[in-house]
Specification:
229 residues; alpha+beta; Adenine-n6-DNA-methyltransferase TaqI, Chain A, domain 2; 9 strands; globular
Length: 229
């Protein structure tokens, strides 16, 4: 099959932009930014509050990040974090028995599965499982395909959800999870797939909030074909 050179060039540009963004080299850094370590403390406090309110369950702590795990150098004001330390990660369940396949029905909760077509829309139901903004990743088929979800939804089989403890940094994670450096093609001997246990310890760089909102979102969207969120 002949490859369209324009498509190849666009993908190469996309990967280059992501690589620069994750290294903190996409735009100049501001030394006056509040460091990401402050954001991490806020995330820990929000997680503790959610546990106290019994909105999430307490989980076992993930191991500290070692120098050998770090993929590249990042600015001093940034932090490496494990994905499972900054949000809930869980797999979707079976499809509900009483779902609707009508795509334009109002006042219903969307059901999402894996896939790119229609952003994985499977149908509609009356009950949501995820009520806060989240990111989903296809666990099978279109492995690693990432979608941003701003409204309540119900994830089903072959879809993994990441729900941050505070949605202020979700857009940054959404963009960074699109990098092939962070998400592999999947595990499994017969049928490759992403799994929750493999995703939770994944590490990614976390910039200061001001760096995220001031530069990363706007620059990525203006210079490539990334999805709008």
């Amino acid at each position: 099959m002949k490859t369209n050179s324009l498509d190849f060039d666009a993908q190469a540009l996309r990967e280059k932009i992501l690589d620069l963004a994750m290294r903190g080299k996409l735009v100049p850094q501001d030394p006056n930014d509040e460091p990401a370590s402050v954001l991490l403390e806020k995330i820990k406090a929000e997680k503790a509050e959610l546990i106290k309110e019994k909105k999430i369950k307490k989980t076992k702590p993930l191991p500290p990040i070692t120098d050998d795990e770090k993929l590249f150098d990042i600015p001093d004001s940034w932090e490496w974090v494990r994905l499972g330390d900054v949000g809930e990660i869980f797999a979707g369940g079976d499809k509900p028995k009483d779902y609707s396949i009508i795509k334009d029905e109002e006042h219903q909760i969307p059901i999402y599965s894996n896939g790119i077509k229609n952003k994985g829309l499977y149908g509609f139901t009356e009950v949501a499982r995820v009520f806060r903004p989240a990111v989903t990743l296809s666990a099978r088929g279109t492995i690693g395909h990432v979608e941003y979800r701003s409204e309540p939804f119900l994830p089903i089989i072959r879809l993994i959800s990441f729900v941050p403890y505070d949605d202020s940094y979700l857009k940054c994670i959404f963009y960074f999870l699109q990098s092939k450096q962070l998400i592999e093609k999947g595990d499994g001997s017969s049928i490759p797939q992403l799994t929750v246990p493999k995703l939770k310890p994944k590490i990614l760089p976390l910039p200061p909030l001001s760096e995220q909102s001031r530069n990363i979102y706007t620059t990525i969207r203006k210079t490539s074909d990334f999805a709008e969120v």
